[in-house]
Structures are given as C-alpha cells and as structure tokens.
Amino acid sequence: MSRVARMFIPRYLTCYQWLVLILCSAEISAGCPSTRLHRAKVMEWDLQDQLNPLMSQMKPLPNVCYPDFINARQEERADNVLPGSNKQAHSSRRPRNSTKSLYSATNTEKIIPGVNDTAPNMEQAVRNNHDGIYPSTLLAMACIYESAPYVNGAPQNTFVPGCAELAEELGRFIGGHDFKSGQTKIKSCLAEFLVNSGIKPLSIASYNHLVSSSLLSNTTASWRCEYLRSSTFLFSFNIYSSGLLDRGGRNKIVISNVTCQDSLLAIPLILDLVIITKLLTRVQYRKPSGNATEESDVQKLYPVLSLLSSMLKASLVRPGPDVINGAARQRAAIDHFLMALLGLQPLTEWEQSKIMA
Hints:
With 357 residues, the chain is mainly α. The chain has 12 helices and 7 strands. GO terms for molecular function: inositol-3-phosphate synthase activity.
C-alpha cells in the first residue's frame, strides 16, 4: 500500500514517511503485558521470548469499567480502572486529546429507546449518568468529540443509533464490528463459495469447546449478541449442535479447527485496520458537475467506513445500501478504491476483448 498511496513506510524512518504508528493500550487490568502474554498461552514460546523485552516495559492506561458490563472471568483482574462512576467525566475529551485513532474490544450493549436511540437522547443520558450508557459507547463518544477515528473490533453493539448519529452529524469516522480473523473467515468464505456455486447452505452449526471462555461468557446478553452478529452474514447459526448433521442433509461439510489462534491472527488485522482507516480519513473528492466551469466543494468520505468490512464480521455501512458480506467482493472494493486513487479503471472479471470476434 505504501507504494500505491504513498502514505506509509513501515520499516524506514525517512523524510518521506507520512505516517508513524505509535501503539498504546488502555485496559482494565494493570498486570505486566509480558505476564499476561504467558498467561494467555496463545502465542508460541519463541515469539513470547522475543516480545518479552519490549512488553515488560509497557504499562496499560486505565480504562472505563462498570461491573455489569464486563465478563465474569475478568472481574478479578479489573484493577486498572478510571475512578468513580460519573459517565460524563468518563466521556471527557481530556484523557484522549492526544489520541489519533482508537480500536476497541470490550463488551455487549443494547439499544434503549429514549436513552441511546438518538444523539440528543444519548448526550442527555450521559449527563444524567444513565445505566444504559455503556463503556465502549463512552470511548466512542470521546473519540468522536476529539475527531479521532474509532474502530470497534469486538462483537458489542457500540454504535447504537445515537452514537452513529452523533458521528454522522459531526463528520467523524467510525467502523465496525468484530474482527474477522480465523474461524469466521473460514465460514464466511466457504458460505460464499457454496452460494456462488449454486448451492444453498441450509444451516451452519458452530461448536466452541473452549470451556474456560464459553461457559463464563454464555450469558443471555452475550449469547444474543453473538447470535445477531453471526446471523448477519450466515443464514442460520446454532450453538452446540446435537444431531444437526444427520437430519436428511445431502451434503455435509465438517471442519475441525484444532489450532485456533484467533488472537494471533488478529494482530495483523489491527495494523491493517489502523493503516487503512488512516488512509480513508485523508481522502477527499469532488463530485462531478454538469457545468464545466464550476466545481463542487471538496468533501471527505462518508463517516461510516464500510471499506473496513473486509476485516470485520458484522459490516457497518451507511443507512440504505445493502450489506455485502462476501469476502471476495469486500476485498475487491479495497483494490478498486486504491486504483481509483491512481485514476485507474476498476478491474472486472468480464473482458469484452475475450469474447468479441
């Protein structure tokens, strides 16, 4: 991308480097990142050893934490939180006035009429310290006020209607939801392949054997969020299937992901999201005018960054257009956008010269 858009040089610090990545973290756990790296048991030991010298020097910034909106297994580790329970203070812009962009992975939210359904209602609810205003929404509001792009990389419904409306009114960039890394990418790509081949999947069943996570996370609110998120791009989603695969189906495909390392796969996704988001915030355009002597005003892209859908499960798009969840079409959208920046015509699978006499 650095050779196409000329905005990011990842390895060399030169006078032509337009974007330098400085990564930090705000977490509810104050433990040493290197210790948590070993405790998670996700990355290979060799990689952990290489990261230890760097990770041991880091300390996460405190984050917003409300007991009702964190996972049960995280309560004992919540020792690095912002003091108090005043949500208007937590949504203050001052703690993040130097933040350029923010990626979030937190909890589950719901839409409450009269509270977070419109931007004015949501701002009033924050002033009233309403229980229906959630931590990730407060972070999103802080970024919106500070003109910092906010990307939601977790399955929660951060961009409730009021939050999305606020971003659109102020022209701030947002994107979401939820990383599309390992298992989900396999299922979505396979479903797209079957549909494009003329085969209609009747059901897609998913079984999670990670007891340490699923049994503590499988609350009503958490599971409802998982169901809604997955059903946006899969026809049917069932948890803990029992006998679904032997009920008269003609063709059954079973995939066993033994070495599931979604957390490791998410690392390059974070970098991709940050870089592409930063690129999209810098693009400006003019709409064509019927009068050759007149030019329309320069505009930025629409605040909802739908081009990020290639890396996220539940695509967040502007109201009106259909949601596209096909992996190939989502990737092609990014390719065609970069080509448009260079003034090139988009590629198509159909070429007239190949069929004309």
